[in-house]
Amino acid sequence: MDKDRKLTKKGWINQTPEGELLLVNENGVAYRVNESIIVVWDAFNDKTVNEVVEDIASQIDKDPEELREPIEQLAEALLEAELLA
């Protein structure tokens, strides 16, 4: 993954009748997610992975290095799911 590439969220948030959170891509494919995934997805607003790592780390008072690998992996999965571009 190009860590300097700016990414922007695509798709939208939805909910099942049972209240489970979904991210839905522009092709209508839905992925069950939790609130943490939505926070990371929502942070991608023309930002790089490194910018999102720094933003979220400062919001939750964590070391950015603790968050870097999980956020990079999530960004890759969101790209594959066509929920980031």
What does this structure look like?
There is one protein chain. The chain has 85 residues and is of the alpha+beta class. The chain has a single domain (7-80), classed as Arc Repressor Mutant, subunit A, CATH 1.10.10. 45% of the residues lie in helices and 20% in strands. It has 3 helices and 5 strands; from the N terminus they run E-E-E-E-H-E-H-H. The protein has a 3-stranded antiparallel sheet. Strands 1-5 form a two-stranded antiparallel ribbon. A hairpin with a 5-residue loop joins strand 2 and strand 3 (21-24). The radius of gyration is 13 Å and the shape is globular. It starts with 6 loop residues before the first strand and ends in a 5-residue tail after the last helix.
Brief account:
The protein has helices at residues 35-43, 49-60, 64-80, and strands spanning 7-8, 12-15, 21-24, 30-33, 45-47.
Spatial sequence of strands, sheet with the most strands? 2-3-4
Q: Main beta sheet: strand number and arrangement? A: 3 strands, antiparallel
Number of beta strands? 5
Q: What's the average pLDDT?
A: 96
Q: Supply the number of structural domains.
A: 1
Distance between the first and last residues' Cα = 12 Å
Shape descriptor reads globular
Output the structural class.
Answer: alpha+beta
The residue ranges in which pLDDT falls below 50 over 5 or more consecutive positions are: none
Put simply, the count of helices is 3
Percent range for β-strand residues: 15-25%
In the CATH classification, which architecture applies? Orthogonal Bundle
